[in-house]
Amino acid sequence: MAELFLLLAVGYFFIIMMTMYKRGSRGRIARSLIIYSLFSLIGVVIQYLVQKGAIGSQYDSILKWFPHLLALFLSIWFVSLSRDFLALRVKSSLWVIFGYCWLIAVITTIGILTSRPEMLASGLNQETLFLILIVMGYVLMMGGAAILTVSAYRLAKTPLHKNRNMYWVLALTCTVSGDFLIFMGLGILGGTLHLLGTFFAAYVLLIYDLADALQAGTRVLFFLIVSTVSLGIYILVFVLARAILENRTDNPLVLWVALAVLLVVFINPLLRLVTNGMRRLVMGTGYSTSSAVREYSLQISNIVELEPLATAALDTLHKNLDIHTGYLFLVDEVNEEGKIYYSLQVVKTAKDAEAQNENNKAEALIPLEQKEPALEESGRMLAAVDPTTPVKTLHGRLAAESPIVLYFTQTHHALRQYDLDYALGFQRVPPEEREWLAALEADVSVPIYAKRGWIGLFVLGPKASGHPYSKEDVNLLSTLADQTAVALENARHFADLLKLNEDLRRTYTALEKANLQLREVDDLKSAFIGVITHEMRTPFTNLQFNLQILEMYGKDNLLPEQLDQLAQLSKGIRTARMMVDNLITLAGFFSRQIELVPEVLDFKDVMRSTFPPLKELADEKNITFQVDVVGKLSPVQGDRNLLALVLYQLVHNAIKFTRDGGKVWVSCWTTVDHFFFDVKDTGVGIPPERLNEIWTTFTQAADPLRRGLEGLGLGLTLVKNIITAHGGEVWVESKVSSGSVFGFKIPLATKEYQSIAEQSPVVEITPTEEI
Prior knowledge:
Blueprint: H1 3-22, H2 28-52, H3 60-63, H4 66-86, H5 93-115, H6 126-155, H7 159-183, H8 187-206, H9 213-245, H10 252-283, H11 289-300, H12 306-321, E1 326-336, E2 339-346, H13 350-365, H14 368-384, E3 395-399, H15 403-411, E4 415-416, H16 417-422, H17 431-439, E5 444-450, E6 453-460, H18 471-553, H19 560-590, E7 598-601, H20 603-620, E8 624-629, E9 636-639, H21 640-656, E10 663-670, E11 674-681, H22 715-725, E12 729-735, E13 739-747, H23 751-758
Parallel strand pairs: 8-10
Antiparallel strand pairs: 1-2, 1-6, 2-3, 4-5, 5-6, 7-9, 10-11, 11-13, 12-13
């Protein structure tokens, strides 16, 4: 009998060794369990030594109460162990201190009353008193552990958390049962149950992925029920068959053949029906994974929008797994100041949109004077909420280095909330990420992967049945996630296109508004230029008339210096008048009031009438001015005055920006359908970054701080507008300090006009003639 205590000691030693092997991953609670098991081991060894008589009889008075006192001492440790294991935020320090004080008081009482029994009041039995004191303390301690265990079970978030606490219930039940047997004097049986309770405690501590106790119990119950029913049917059939056939035949073989026929034809099918019925009754109905996946694939095959996709996915999960709470999140990788995050945004379902519309309608019907008190009351209610309570938000953010993200990106497997709470690899998960998932009441999260990576996440709450997610459930969820990947990718592209279209629509609207404002400003500018220049034309006309009178009749009476000043004044007035005329012409183009006066033109005539003053300007700067006509020029159809203005502006600009002693030459030629004209110079050139802006209004190609040249920068703008109005194009090529080439092309006259022009006299210009 004593050897049984050695077997119990071996059991405690094994628990201590296994706990020490894994204590690095469990910390404080592992140390507590080691100490708890060590004291249990010491108690068992002492019991063995007592049974063997290795301890002298002089200690009988102490050893008699040793098992009881050890049970009380271990109950105090069990309270602390329960608090740490169940992770409840309660302060049990006072409770533990009270337990130790009670233990010391009991030991003191036993010592005093044992040595001085006369102190005990008459009528009281010493042993009964000691046992009552010990049992009272034990009940207080283990009652506290039971309260903690029940509270933890009620607060458990998921079935797996409840399953974990269920094992602690088993540990508590076995421990209490064993200790009460010890109090009753049944040391071996009580010690065995106490060892079993310690084994359950070590099992639930060292192995976080526990077997489903409820499911195991259900399977055992199913097996017992089916076995009992089957045995009863077999016995009933055998008894009935024997009673019926025993008096009708003396041959036992006939009896056994009849039983075999009954078993094959009637009994076995009946048992299958009974077994299936019992399975549905005891274990519940299941689902077909292949049917669920096939139905889901057909359902989402033509979905291209996010909301219907989320609705279809969650409806399928609700139908097959009875999940009431679930979310589909879009996952996007974001880079914020060099740090990578994964942003998670929920996809609303049809029910969410309908509920939102109903809320909006209800709020719209509430009068404003009733809304303000309601909002104030709502604010008071929110202020009264415990700040530690997580607030549900449907937008989350996970850091790239988070263990959750690393798990999803490396394994692509589902993550249970139970794993997140107890698996070693998730101890470094940031508190905000835990709180976010806890606020969603998540039980399992399933990543959705496509070719470009992690694009979505199913976050699902507990099953309505209260059962945990089985391996079959997780496999189904992973398969549905794979099926969802392509549809979700397409839906995201579709959503991006819708958003892009909406952004483009808004951009086009803004551009139209901006263009309208620009047109209004441009019209205002043109009107302003037109009004000002028209008003300036009259005084310039008067000045020019008076200057002509002065030149005609006053030259003989003026000194040479005065004549030179008069020439400068005449030149300045002509330049200013030309600027005003250019402004008026440009304003006409801006206001679309310029009408071309087309005629058939020989460009040689236009050049002969335009180039003489430009030749004089070139001679003043000692610039070589040359005209090259390549081949015979075909006539063009255009406005003579405007085209002459184009020639003047291009050549004048070339002369103006060419240094003294330089060269300017003009080339012109015709092709089958166009007339080409360009002006080359050896001037200052134009920087490459300014080539695109020289055709705009009030732009000077030269440096405005150093050029020292007159002009408003309207010449090239006029050129472009005139050539464009004739259906032509302009161009420019330039290199700083090497010169520029400006040119244009316009269409030739139609054949009808060309035949008329061929009958008119033509004035020839030598190709290399120097004007």
